[in-house]
Design brief:
Blueprint lengths: L1 E9 L10 E3 L3 E3 L4 E5 L6 H8 L7 E6 L2 E2 L5 H11 E4 L11 H11 L6 H10 L15 H13 L5 E5 L7 H17 L3 E6 L11 E3 L1
Parallel strand pairs: 4-9, 4-10, 7-8, 8-9
Antiparallel strand pairs: 1-2, 1-3, 1-5, 5-6
Helix pairs in contact: 3-5
Bound molecules: adenosine-5'-triphosphate.
């Protein structure tokens, strides 16, 4: 379960230019539930997701994962908590380019101090249709293939919360529905909360709960 209350944030000011103050609506997503967060470009969807992922520190309000208050964590606590409990699908994948696709998946286990789940990586690669690419470098993959690897990486640790930033932006209609279906099935199997931020209108009909920013 992930929930936020009265969450506020502002990016640091640069050269005295005032920055936008964000106030986000209260939100909760229970174990096994899915939530779609929609909003036009620039409304703060990525910012909201990065606050939930503890990649940014809020200026006010609270965030709980499994009823544990996490908004006050320092960066070391946040990194350890995130590696063990949160799977993130970034808008841009951030792979380690010197490693193979398989090793990028296993790196998620390594960073969370978990044993390397090679069978799970193989299973996810087959389900997401990139099993033939496991030995390649991530730079040899198309953008849509990289996006699917990024989704698999977020699922490697059976995280309790999966946060996805525009996971379908590079996918055609067939792959879009296939990937969302897989993401929903996998997160429901592990009882995780799935939060997706997007402006992809194709996703509106496949998620029951919507939050508009
Ligand atoms: N590092 C940063 N420093 C200062 N301002 C930022 C930074 N990142 C984002 N912003 C600003 O915050 C606002 C919200 O950005 P954000 O990326 O969260 O929006 P978004 O809704 O995800 O947009 P999009 O759909 O285009 O990805 C934008 O006006 C953006 O310019």
């Amino acid at each position: 379960m992930i929930a936020t209350q009265q969450l506020t944030f502002a990016y640091p000011t640069q050269s005295n230019v005032p920055t936008k103050q964000f106030t986000f609506p209260d939100f909760s997503c229970a174990d096994g539930e899915t939530m779609l967060i929609l909003g036009k470009s620039g409304r703060g969807k990525t910012t909201f997701l990065h606050l939930m992922a503890l990649l940014l520190k809020p200026t006010g309000g609270s965030i709980q994962i499994h009823n544990q208050e996490i908004s006050h964590f320092d960066s070391a606590q946040a990194a350890a908590f995130r590696a063990a409990n949160v799977g993130i699908i970034y808008q841009k994948p951030h792979f380690v380019h010197s490693l193979s696709v398989l090793d990028n998946l296993l790196l998620a286990n390594y960073l969370a101090n978990k044993s390397l789940a090679k069978e799970k990586a193989q299973h996810l690669a087959e389900s997401l249709g990139f099993a033939d690419h496991l030995a390649k470098k991530t730079t040899q993959l198309s953008q849509g293939e990289q996006q699917r690897v990024s989704i698999a990486r977020a699922l490697m640790n059976n995280a309790s919360v999966i946060l996805a930033d525009e996971p379908t932006s590079n996918l055609d209609d067939d792959n879009c529905l296939r990937v969302i279906d897989l993401l929903k099935t996998q997160t429901s199997e592990i009882g995780a909360s799935l939060v997706v931020v997007t402006h992809d209108q194709r996703l509106k009909d496949v998620f029951e709960k919507h939050l508009y920013l």
